[in-house]
Amino acid sequence: MEEPGNLELATKSITGRPADGPRFLGATTELEYGVKGWWTTEFYLDGQATFGDSTLFTGYRWENRFRLLPREHWINPVLYVEFENINGADKGLLEVVGHDGQEDLIVPNADARLEKQREIEAKLILSSYVKGWTVAENFISEKNIRHEPFEFGYSVGVSRPLALTARADRCNVCPENFQAGIELYGGLGTHADFGVRDTSHYIAPTVAWTLASGTSFKISPGFGLTGASAGFLLRFGVSYEIAQFGRAARSMFHR
Amino acid sequence: MKLIGLTCLLLISAWAQNVGPLEQAPAKFANKKNPMQGNESASRAGAKLYARECAACHGSEGEGGEKAPPLKRAEVFQAPPGTLFWVLENGSLNRGMPSFAHLPEPQRWQIITYLQSQKPADHATGK
């Protein structure tokens, strides 16, 4: 959850080369704002470039996250609700659901962009903090609001800072600024065809590095585990948090 | 009968919103000791973490902000460290303070060590 009044600017990119298809670069720009301690809202703009094809804007997403319990517990649930208005050419791959697979990534942009994907996505995010380890599990349910069945997916991950105690001096390359972990994510079919048959799954080590200034870098190479998965996906991103952006914005209009 | 129950629930809820986070901490946390108490290096690390995690709302010197209370005050200086630990872990959502449970435990103790190494501003002025 974002702290109230803070604005985080982030880019999330992904590149890969599906079998029988050209390399692509999917890019998402993210604005995340903490409205309340229990409510964070995010707006995304998506685009992609496919080598030898074209570069295009693919749509937007608006998500809201709600912390469900006021106190910390062994497992802490957060409800995530997102509206997506993207087209079929979107290659941001922010989540994998249903029977998403590498075949979706080889459709030429001119054809893929004709498919409208106005979808409602809901996730139940469960997280725990155990002796410095962060453990998070998501169950994803996604529904195209026009037609098509419910699609399901999952994501589980663990991560930990390289040091639990902070060093006294201001430093960029100190172990507590690095976070290492591993994620497993994939599709679980649809409500008519629930399960792992013909679905794609990935295992992805992750490394995040936060500078003293608050800028964070993240990189995560993902390896496909099934025939439907792309063989290799590389995710990378950078984020920067503007503390108390809401207060600064309000003061601009109240002079 | 249901109406009385509902009224009691609303009154308790309104009362809970007016009680500060330090008062909301369960008594058992008051006995929790800070393993880094008085450690100079932990205090300096805590100052660094405070600047990153807390200063935006509570002020760079703990003087308080638009919505967040000052931390450089006797109530915080004298609070049992375990109570402050509980507040950092749980936050106070109805007052806009998020949970800092994502910080490893030793880093939360470092912040507390720093906070309790600061002389309270209201001590000097006799408030």
Brief description of this entry?
Chain A is 5% helix and 56% strand.
Q: How does this structure look, described?
A:
The complex is a heterodimer of chains A (255) and B (127). Chain A is mostly beta strands. Chain A has a single domain (7-253), classed as Porin. Helix content of chain A is 5%, strand content 56%. In chain A, a hairpin with a 5-residue loop joins β11 (201-210) and β12 (216-224). Chain A is globular and about 50 Å long. Chain A starts with 6 loop residues before the first strand and ends with a helix. Chain B has 127 residues and is mostly helical. Chain B has a single domain (21-124), classed as Cytochrome Bc1 Complex, Chain D, domain 2. Helices cover 54% and strands 0% of the residues of chain B. Chain B has helices at 2-18, 21-24, 40-53, 55-58, 74-77, 81-90, 105-115, 121-124. In chain B, α3 (40-53) crosses α7 (105-115) and α6 crosses α7 (105-115). The longest helix of chain B is centred in the first third of the chain and has 17 residues, at 2-18. The radius of gyration of chain B is 16 Å and the shape is globular. The chains are: A mainly beta (255), B mainly alpha (127). At the A-B interface, loops of A face α3, α4 and α7 of B.
